[in-house]
Amino acid sequence: MKDSKALRHDWTKEELLAIYNKPLLELVYEAATVHRQWHNPEEVQISTLLSVKTGGCPEDCSYCGQAARYHTDIKVQALLPTETVLAHAQKAKDSGSSRFCMAAAWREVRDNRDFDRIIEMVQGVNEMGLEVCCTLGMLTEDQANRLQEAGLYAYNHNLDTSEEFYDEIISTRKFDNRLATINNVRKAGITVCSGGIIGLGEKDADRISMLRTLANMEKHPESVPINALARVAGTPLADLPKVDVWDMVRMIATARIVLPSSMVRLSAGRIEMTEVEQGWCFMAGANSIFTGERQTLLVTPNPGVDEDMQMLKNLGLKPMELKKERLCSTNG
């Protein structure tokens, strides 16, 4: 039974580390039990993520192929026309997605014609009856209010890693900048999507610290993406080793236990996981994936929608249906 009073916001690092380090089968069993108390274990939300503006970002995130300063094969793409984006959204809906997220490689949102076009995209996707999400970089309170009025359901702004490790990965912004944008999103009445990446060279303590920041927020993020580093040639982290699947399972299970009401999203890195390994992640509490007809997640490889639908069928899972009460209205 769901009980919002059971949600905790006072986790200690020691408590989280003890959970994370439990024997694997015991950890997964506990996470699966929590998952069944809060969610339908047979359902997985299918989400589609589209890069509406690609590359040329002035930030220096060490993992990102869209940073202008790194020599990658990523081609810079200006903001897509609204009609193109809406066509992708309709195709995503027809393929079984209930959530459509639009990503732009910006450091922050600027109040210009491009933002006006984003507003048009949000309105159009919302009118299709999809959960509409954006990830556009840093956001002011006024900009968040405009997005909410347009019908934005969720805003993604990942912490990426722990506050302690943050400066090792990014120097062009601070951890507090992430928290400020999340706060602006909350104040506007938009749901929060925020998680992080493992495999950046961080320690277990950093993974725990990041989860603790999320779990101790005044209101838990409604959505928590857990990403494995997608290594992009030309970036500083390109030669790091592949993330061990059991590290992903541990991270997802721990997130499920301390963030029981949140959607835990099995995000980047799935292309390197077998169907069985992904099944372990679902058992540990993941209940959303990103898919799409382009077989990319932003600029990195990702399974296609047909492959994902077959996997869900093989595992006895089904796509989550869009619930009307989850939609935003343009009236706020």
From TrEMBL:
Residues 42-270 form the Radical SAM core domain. InterPro entries: Aldolase_TIM, BATS_dom, Biotin_synth/BioAB, Biotin_synthase, Elp3/MiaA/NifB-like_rSAM, rSAM, rSAM_sf. It catalyses: (4R,5S)-dethiobiotin + (sulfur carrier)-SH + 2 reduced [2Fe-2S]-[ferredoxin] + 2 S-adenosyl-L-methionine = (sulfur carrier)-H + biotin + 2 5'-deoxyadenosine + 2 L-methionine + 2 oxidized [2Fe-2S]-[ferredoxin]. The keyword Transferase applies. It is an enzyme of class 2 (transferase). Signal peptide: none annotated. The keyword Metal-binding applies. Pathway: Cofactor biosynthesis; biotin biosynthesis; biotin from 7,8-diaminononanoate: step 2/2. Pfam families: BATS (PF06968), Radical_SAM (PF04055). Binds 1 [4Fe-4S] cluster. The cluster is coordinated with 3 cysteines and an exchangeable S-adenosyl-L-methionine. Binds 1 [2Fe-2S] cluster. The cluster is coordinated with 3 cysteines and 1 arginine. Its cofactor is [4Fe-4S] cluster; [2Fe-2S] cluster. Keywords: 2Fe-2S, 4Fe-4S, Biotin biosynthesis, Iron, Iron-sulfur, Metal-binding, S-adenosyl-L-methionine, Transferase. Its EC number is 2.8.1.6. Catalyzes the conversion of dethiobiotin (DTB) to biotin by the insertion of a sulfur atom into dethiobiotin via a radical-based mechanism. NCBIfam families: bioB. Homodimer. Belongs to the radical SAM superfamily. Biotin synthase family. HAMAP family: BioB. This is Biotin synthase. It comes from Sphingobacterium cellulitidis.
